[in-house]
Amino acid sequence: MAGPYFDPEYENLSIRINPPRVSVDNTSCRDCTLVKVDSMNKPGILLEVVQILTDLDLLITKAYISSDGGWFMDVFHVTDQNGKKITDSKTIDYIEKALGPKGQAADWIKSRPGKRVGLHSVGNHTTVELIGRDRPGLLSEIFAVLADLHFNIAAAEVWTHNTRIACVLYVNDDTTYLAVDDPCRLSLMEEQLKNILGGSQDDEHVAHTSFSMGFTHVDRRLHQMMFADRDYENADTPNIVEYPPPLKPKIFVEHCEEKGYSVVTVKCKDRPKLMFDIVCTLTDMQYVVFHATISSDGPYASQEYYIRHMDGCTLDMEMEKERVIKCLEAAIQRRISEGLSLELCAKDRVGLLSEVTRILRENGLTVMRAGVSTVGEKAKNVFYVRDSSGNPVGVKTIEALRKEIGLTMMLNVKKAPASSREPPEARGWAKTSFFFGSLLEKFLPGICM
């Protein structure tokens, strides 16, 4: 007997009958903007909304989430990177269109090239994904190989955590600046990159190189790559950076018998994109958020999520609770950028990244995270670095870098302050990467942020 027939247009009809309602309120709160979203509930909608707000580099200071039943109701308290209200009319208009009835969140995300991973995601570029064991100088070797093979790196995001490294690189031919589709060149690139990433035969973590054809948000893809590589597991190596108590998140999983939820509580130092990283991880682990409360108290954040697995079950097994705690802890720490930040701006040229990362390596520095972009003829790069032992960088090393790098490009060195009592704009949590904003300026000139 055939099953019941479901019209594929039913969901679209329901949305047309009950379109999303979005309001951007600058009058109700003295020091922040309220973004209110009411719409029909659907899988992944919370992540879509948070993704749009964080991609605009907005800081979510408070949020109240409720999506039990068929309706989704959220209130977000947001500010810009300087802690001010959102007053730019184009940004407000974009939020209303992206989340409102004229453009569903998922459709708007698909229409924004700078936010996806894929062959066609940022114009004429091929996207390369790399995952493997991190070591000092690895990034320099990767960039050097690409330069030798005549690939230009137009943009990149690099994360490291627990001795693992994940990269998403946008490359093209260094002469034509078009995507490379020659299978021989791509095969040679893949072979040489795999040789650099290495990985012994008895290593349970396997180095991996692939050419992406998907359409996934870049930050989410990096989380997925790290998660699949099990970076949340403690590796038996002395080179793992131990985060000091103020940076180590405190995560608890409890059971709410009255409502039949599992309650995940996260307390840690606040930073941009914290909520995105947590919601992204819960979503990719197949958990559904029904209610949530997000708040920031000075430099610290407290987030509480009422969740169930997609099959409706709660987290009853201790092993499952421990896994959620480890995965969320890893997701939070992947983007932590305590230490030294090097912001470089120069005229773009072939081999520039290879040269810069070689200088960092020769000065005994290890890249913890990086954001690379090109806008027109300018290359804008951010490197978060420590010394080869995982310690903060010394003054002598900084001065050596200024003398060597500062001769050919603008170099801005930022240190994360020791005190956690400083105001948000002085705590070193200011905009951590201009990668996506720069890409949008280049590929979507009609949208100003």
Question: How does this model look, in words?
Answer:
InterPro entries: ACR1-12, ACT-like_dom_sf, ACT_dom. Keywords: Repeat. The chain has 449 residues and is an alpha+beta fold. The chain folds into 2 domains: 10-112 and 243-333, no CATH class; 114-218 and 337-443, ACT domain (Alpha-Beta Plaits, 2-Layer Sandwich), CATH 3.30.70.260. It is 29% helix and 31% strand. It is built from 12 helices and 18 strands. It has an 8-stranded antiparallel beta sheet. The protein has an 8-stranded antiparallel beta sheet with strand order 9-6-8-7-16-17-15-18, sandwiched between helices. A two-stranded antiparallel ribbon has the order 5-10. A hairpin with a 7-residue loop joins strand 1 and strand 2 (33-40). It is globular, with a radius of gyration of 22 Å. The chain starts with 9 loop residues before the first helix and ends in a 6-residue tail after the last helix.
Write the layout of secondary structure elements.
Blueprint: H1 10-17, E1 21-25, E2 33-40, H2 45-55, E3 59-66, E4 71-79, H3 89-99, H4 105-110, E5 116-117, E6 126-133, H5 138-148, E7 151-161, E8 164-173, H6 183-197, E9 208-211, E10 216-217, H7 218-228, E11 250-256, E12 261-269, H8 274-284, E13 287-297, E14 300-309, H9 318-333, E15 340-347, H10 352-362, E16 365-375, E17 378-387, H11 395-405, E18 410-415, H12 435-443
Antiparallel strand pairs: 1-2, 2-4, 3-4, 3-13, 5-10, 6-8, 6-9, 7-8, 7-16, 11-12, 12-14, 13-14, 15-17, 15-18, 16-17
